Amino acid sequence: MGATTKDGMDIADKSREIVKRKIFEVLNEKIDLYSDEEMGLIERVVHATADPEYAKLILFNNGPIKNCLDALNNKKPIITDISMVKAGIRYNNIVCTISDKETFEYAKKYGITRAVASIRSLKDEIDGGIIVIGNAPTALLEVIRLYNEEKIRPKLVLGVPVGFVKASESKELLRTLNIPSISTIGPKGGTPIAVSLMNGIIALSKNERI
Amino acid sequence: MGATTKDGMDIADKSREIVKRKIFEVLNEKIDLYSDEEMGLIERVVHATADPEYAKLILFNNGPIKNCLDALNNKKPIITDISMVKAGIRYNNIVCTISDKETFEYAKKYGITRAVASIRSLKDEIDGGIIVIGNAPTALLEVIRLYNEEKIRPKLVLGVPVGFVKASESKELLRTLNIPSISTIGPKGGTPIAVSLMNGIIALSKNERI
Hints:
Chains A, B: This is Precorrin-8X methylmutase CbiC/CobH. Chain A is α/β, with parallel strands linked by helices and 210 residues long.
């Protein structure tokens, strides 16, 4: 969970116990519907946000963990929508071009968001790779467009954009497609959710405690 | 709000309208207790998290906005507890040493968290500077120790650590002191809250739309 010192790990352990209890309060017997790996990821999100409501908001579709582990084993890149998400993920092949000058110019020229411009320019990396969207609904909608119109096939779309405009709808649309995905129901989502889920799967790939 | 293209700004505008409505539903007539600047910052947090509950969780103590603006005008550094917070803030004098080799060694040697080690080693920058804590309660407790025991006087403590262990208590303790601070009630907090508040004050310092 990021802690590397004894004090840090003591806090993480104690927190994890409380987190498990809070999740049980939210899910009750529905807790049995989740695999150990899925529950480990949900615990990470509740730990990162102190918001137990996430236990009932996170959805796993089309074998996202297995597909993501395959991609990680094959050293595929992780593409992120924003720099904050990149900064939080512990992996050495992460791409994020949102702040590049070229992205800004491309966005301006075509009247699209920087998030869309960035995703569109990275479609070759996204094909067979892992795409993590923690902020921009328009970035997720562009991934869906690439899937539908350009046959781009990510191994995982971790799509948790946040906000009251387009975020819910973009995630609902994602879940109608045959893409391995992890997403949230409704407007909630964001960087800590994206990062804690992704770091959880990376921990799994190294056989570390999730 | 980070948007720089027309599409991006349209989404931001529409979102802001919804955010204002949601905040009103939470605060009702208590909305009049806040200054325009404070309400602008609260709107940013609700926009960044899609979680209107934050409207009643954010507290401003001892003139935090004015003191922070003074520090920004004097080009004082912003110190952050973790890299993700640093990655999200738009300012050119930001310091974060949590991932430095020296910090790790110092933490190991003295049996403290990396967060504490990092804050302790930056006390000269924190004195008269702006300290933003979006993750680690132990980092906030160390800032409080530096205030009490070593007379370190930050111009703003933006203290929104998250979690079920020590986070609430560390923020309550902060609010008992005569330090300009912005903090949250209870276990909730985290990177998006820290970043949206800090970028909001930076926007104010440039007379940009908050």
